[in-house]
Amino acid sequence: MKKVSIIIPVYNAEQYIATTVESVLLQTYKNIEVLIIDDGSPDQSIQICQQFNDSRIQIIRQENQGVSAARNTGIKMAQGEFIAFLDADDLWLPQKLAIHVQHLSANPTLGMSFGRVEFMNFDGTPTGQYSNPCFKDLTSKKLYEENPAVTPSNAVIRRVALQQVGGFDLDLSGFADAELFLRVCCHGWQVEGIDKVLVLYRTNLGGMSSQLYRMEEEWSRVNSKVQAYAPELVKTHYNHAKALLLRYLARRTLRLHLSSEIGINFMNRALRSEWKLIFKEPRRTLLTLLAVYSRYFIPNLNMSKL
């Protein structure tokens, strides 16, 4: 039975870490090691982790260096053939690892496996929203344009693939996972999804507009990284990828209940980046366009479910 290494970076997660670790220990697939990386957490998170009496759990301490560095520490320590990542506030459904191990074992060219995500509010209540990505025939173009896994908590990666491509880029934060997944694909590994909900992803809707602009800035840094190993990808598909990002940020303004002017700004710039987006992806583009402008003219309209 192949071992799976589970890497959980921990920093200020005392409110959620117990249920997160429990969701790992309840996995139907039992040959695991759980690497909890204490990234200099100042709260009671690690004391809570120490209460679990399970020999498969290791707690590794380091000074605070950020989540990407914590994940990379886990990668270096991992002994499993497959490596799974789990953020300290997310949850796995019990069959997740068993399904991924079967998926990866049956496909030796498969470098990364992921499933569908169910979104929950930060208090753990369901939102009724699910990820609906492309699962098959994923090319570097598709991974450059959008992150089908949504979150690191959804990815299970073959350790040899991570050894080949390196770990998470320490210069990136929010897009570090998407860039790593793209790198796996660009190095010749297949990336494929499973059409089953396997992760409960806790979303923080308490952000401010400045966070969305920082996401746009970081996306530009991602492009400079990708330019180094896949320059033709950036040259050929930059405008379309930028348009998709800006459309996504426009939708986020609806979920965050931000000013309609911010949403309109993102959506207008998306169409300036590639106006053909209306014809290439008419449903999502027109719905987003309608939503952001409707909120401008009808301020009390609730379209946060878009």
- Total discrete domains: 2
The global form is globular
CATH topology of the largest domain: Spore Coat Polysaccharide Biosynthesis Protein SpsA, Chain A
Helix content: 40-55%
Overall residue-averaged pLDDT value: 93
Number of H/I helices = 12
What is the count of β-strands? 9
Structural class: alpha/beta
Task: Characterize the largest beta sheet: strand count, sense, and whether it forms a barrel.
Answer: 9 strands, mixed
Query: What ranges have pLDDT less than 50 throughout 5 or more consecutive residues?
Result: none
Strand content: 15-25%
Q: State the order of secondary-structure elements, H for helix, E for strand.
A: EHEHEHEEHEEHEHHEHHHHH
Distance between the termini: 43 Å
Instruction: Just give the CATH class of the largest domain.
Output: Alpha Beta
Work out the radius of gyration: 19 Å
CATH architecture label of the largest domain: Alpha-Beta Complex
Domain Glycosyltransferase 2-like: 5-165
Protein name: Glycosyltransferase 2-like domain-containing protein
